[in-house]
Amino acid sequence: MAFLTLIVPLYNGSRFIDALSRNLLAVHQAVADTELLLVNDGSSDDTLPRLQAFLQTDAARPLNVKLIDTPNGGVSRARNTALAAAGGRYVMFMDQDDAVDASKLAALLAELAQSDADMLHFNADARYARQTEVYPRDRFLTDIPFSSYAWSYVYRRAMIVRYGLRFNEGMKYLEDGLFVLACLLRSERIVTSPQAVYTYTDNPQSVMRSVRTAAQTQKFLDDIGAAVKGYTALLQAADAAGDAAERLHEIRDSFQFIHIVNMLKAGVSRRELAARLADAGYDYRLRHYPSRFNRRVAVAALCRLFRSQTLLGILAGSRAMYYVQRLKAAHRL
Asked: Of 225, 297, 298, whose CA–CA distance to 262 is shortest?
């Protein structure tokens, strides 16, 4: 059994393959016991033949690699397909246009192996995680800001299999966080490090950064609402208590905040706003937000507005909420 399975979905990623190939070779050299799963998610460019050509090179022959070609179904389906084929003790996800520091990853995987923890979290906020340390789950939830990026963790595969944890294939946006939190809640211990293992590329053509059509905006709002309901279900089923339970409510309320901000930015009608909030179970309280990780004045001011059903109704559809986009930049989980 390989120690690590590294899963990389690709969609129309031909221009990234040279850099990705070099990075995968570096990971293999640093962590020889690695299984690579590359998933071509129905690309319409030459991603597949370029991957096939790379795998035929002399440099790639030592790799333990599988290339999976599937019809286009989105990143969640591609990841789930790879999870079903994975054989490593732990699994990790990487995006096609990002990079991993192989030597830093190898060092932290050694810590993970020694501790036999359920998860590894790297790129943690150095203001709260000042050194590499093993955290019990509830202390992790309480003391470390929640990173909703699937790529910032390594996961015990047996835990994923045992509890049937998967990405929500019906969501195009914000699907990572629900998977991450579900895994955290099933974990007992998490190795946590501020080490910058992963370099995220802020790609203007990515799903989250590209300009959305009207239909895509509606899907985005749908998925934020689904995320709020998903976080609510997770916190209701969790066995956390005390400060950890409070933190789960903070995470849920932070996404409710994001939900409201984006509806107002989109200029939804008063009726649509009320309907979407009712569907997401909003009680006009936001009792657990802002959190201790985000005490910015702009966020606190918006939360006060969002606790008033009357004010929200007035703001709905108002062009004044164009300026929320600037205020949203101050928001972090």
From this structure: 225
Q: Structural domain of residue 249, as residue ranges?
A: 214-328
Q: Is residue 301 part of a domain?
A: yes
Give 49-68 pLDDT, tens digit per residue.
999 999 999 999 999 999 99
Domain co-membership, 246 together with 159? no
Do residues 118 and 187 touch, judged by C-beta distance below 8 A?
A: yes
Residue that is written with structure tokens 């979290």 in the block: 121
**Cβ neighbours, 10 Å, residue 33:** 14
Whether pTM exceeds 0.85: yes
Q: DSSP 3-state assignment of 13?
A: coil
CATH number at residue 112: 3.90.550.10
Query: How many other CB atoms are there within 10 angstroms of residue 69's CB atom?
Result: 14
Domain's final residue, options 199, 227, 261: 199
Q: What angle do CA 261, 264, 269 make, to 5 degrees?
A: 145
Cα(111)–Cα(192) distance, integer angstroms: 10
Q: Do residues 4 and 34 touch, judged by C-beta distance below 8 A?
A: yes
Per-residue pLDDT tens digits for 113-137: 999 999 999 999 999 999 999 999 9
Structure tokens at 259: 């939900």
Q: Between the CA atoms of 239, 242, 243 and 248, what dihedral angle is there, to the nearest 10 degrees?
A: 40
pLDDT of residue 331: 52
In a domain, 320, yes or no: yes
pLDDT tens profile 13-41: 999 999 999 999 999 999 999 999 999 99
C-alpha dihedral sign at 78, 80, 85, 87: positive
- Residue 103, H or E segment: helix 102-115
